[in-house]
Amino acid sequence: MASKSKRTSQIEPRASPKEAEFTVRKQINVAIDAQMQAYIDPVVFRKVFTDGDLVSITKDGMLCGYAEIQPLSKPTLDPAQIQLSPVLREQCDILTGDRVAISKFAFPESVVSEVLVYVDGLSNPEVEQSVRSLFSTLKYICKGYKYALEDSGSVHVCDILTKQNEAVSLYGAAEPGDTEAQIFSVPEVYTLTFADSTESRLKSPFEVTYDSIGGLDKEISMLRMFVDLPLNRPEIFAHFGVPAVRGVLLHGPPGTGKTMLLRAVASETKARLITINGPSIISKYLGESEAALRKRFEEAHNNQPAIIFLDEIDALAPRRDDDDSGQAEARLVGTLLTLMDGTASSSTSRVVVIGATNRPNSIDPALRRPGRFDKEIEVGIPDAAARLDIMRILLSKIPHDLHEDDIEHLAGKTHGYVGADLSSLCQEAALSSIERNDDIIQDKTSDEYLNLRVTLSDFQAAINKVRPSAMREIFLEPPTTRFSEIGGQEEVKQKLREMVEWPLTKSDTFQRLGIQAPKGILLYGPPGCSKTLVAKALATEAGLNFFAVKGPELFNKFVGESEKSVRDLFRKARAVRPSIIFFDEIDAMASSRETHSSGADRILTTLLNEMDGIESLDGVVVLAASNRPEVIDSALLRPGRIDRLVYVSPPDREARTKIFEITLAKMSVADDVTAERLADKADRMSGAEIVAACQEAGLQAMNENIDALCIEWRHFESALLKARRGITDEMIEFYEQFRRSTTL
């Protein structure tokens, strides 16, 4: 007999309030005794519910389940959101992002006499005791429900017998008030019987399911429509007189979760998964590759419902008109086309073909038509919200001491990271923690390692080591310069913050006002005035992925290669957006088309198309620097391409003082050497010339005494007198005139 302590056999009726609607969100780290609990904002909870309330959950007006409603300990949810555990979402057939309504209800005194359960896995006295302990915490019970066990596996409620010795029909209730046939309060005393088998075996929540994948809710919803229905409900398509979807192509950058999505689809649909990798069926003998492919399709048709997974399909079915494609590839593609047509022609077939690739344009075009790959789903690089979802799932398996704000900070900082990158980031953070606690790890006699946790500092160290996959082929050290290290130019710094940081942090305001962020910014001014340094500091301060390009680097002697380099550059920047592309000395590659060769013309035309062409440049800012703005082609400087022109002027006295302060802080100088005195002596000098003069003063001090302890005033005075001043009155007048002619 199973007994319950401090439980009542009857839930007191309460007045039902008006239904409240919520958007479903995932619940992470679900306790064993809280699998059937739903969580909402504590303020909303206090207004409507009280402790111990049970609620019905309806979706689209249809009753789909029940839960015990609880307030979150901290208000981390939006008031219009509700957290449901993976087990509860599975029972109710609800996806994250769905809209559900909940309302209180009451049900009569329990009439349960016996509950028949089945335990997945090995059943022994310890497991049975674990089941009894779990059931002693339950307030209510339903036939068909499944509960996860503490160690592993799960227990399924096969049947419920009432005191009248009548079996309860599964999902017999049609209305929230009609609960006798479906839901019961658990009495103090009842019989718990362990069955040998069950016809309603449910999958474990710990398998690879949709719930174990973060940040792909939209893609999962599409897969449910394109794969679940053709496999499990083909009669729906027959009712509408249309053919079911027979092929789905998943495409996107490497590491975004295409293969994991496929594994989840197979698990959720209970379908037979048949994987075909190119090398596994390729044979050197004529006809054997095609025979192996036909055998796999035959196996799928004999084990329906089935999913045929073609991983890296671009290697298996390349374009037949490609120069590298031979007769063997053409025969294999032809066989695949015939087999897919055969699958599509059968109205009773419960076989779906899913292909995955990161090069969709390399696949033979004949495959990408209705009847073969009917639907294409792009699995793109996750945004900040999706990265947060992924990080929560990854961290649920890692001992850590991060708060929710820390996780949100990491998700916001990891621009361009895909799921595989975030997994690698967590691994690197764990390795950092292990290295930091090496003395504890090496002590094999102690179990103190069980108390170790991954900290925020471990993740911050890991971010410097793990770069987005799309940027790993770019050998560029991320800039570390900050605005505080640049003397003066405060107006320029503020303008750049407004143009680059505001669109990221205040995107809702931009949308509300109906305005767009600038696509391009040109920094122009005399040489040595910190244009390049400001660009590096902007990338560091904004936390964006940074691509630095010097104009001449893009030129190639082979026709078309230079333009390809420009296209590849923008493609990579879009892949890891938000990002900055910095063109230093842009006048070398974008001077007026009236003055340079046809090769440079093609590069400029490609650049113009990328900045304001058919494909959007959202999330990518083009930052350029030049000290010859007058030679840049006018088509590049129009609104919609380079929208803003920012004049980086020579430093005034205040800016020169700041530059000297920053430079002298790294030097050993005499007490009478001050930044203010030096600034008065450095009129018309650029920032680069000031730094060079300070270096010259140090060398003069060493010439006098190789073991000098400090640099004296006379050394600085001599260096400033000898310093070459490259900024002339004519130069300043030219830049001022250009600024006036381009000011809006």
Automatic annotation (TrEMBL):
Which InterPro entries does the entry mention? AAA+_ATPase, AAA_ATPase_domain, AAA_lid_3, ATPase_AAA_core, ATPase_AAA_CS, P-loop_NTPase
Q: Which UniProt keywords apply?
A: ATP-binding, Nucleotide-binding
Q: Which CDD domains does the entry link to? A: RecA-like_CDC48_NLV2_r1-like, RecA-like_CDC48_r2-like
Pfam family example for this protein? AAA_lid_3
Q: Which GO terms describe its cellular component?
A: cytoplasm; preribosome, large subunit precursor
Q: Which SUPFAM superfamilies match?
A: P-loop containing nucleoside triphosphate hydrolases (SSF52540)
Start and end of every AAA+ ATPase domain?
A: 244-383, 517-652
Organism domain of life: Eukaryota
Q: Name one GO biological process term.
A: ribosomal large subunit biogenesis
- Signal sequence span is none
One Gene Ontology MF term: ATP hydrolysis activity
Q: Which residues form a coiled coil?
A: none
| SMART domains per record | AAA
Q: Does the keyword Cell cycle apply?
A: no
Q: What is this protein called?
A: AAA+ ATPase domain-containing protein
Source organism: Tortispora caseinolytica NRRL Y-17796
Q: What is the lineage of its organism?
A: Eukaryota, Fungi, Dikarya, Ascomycota, Saccharomycotina
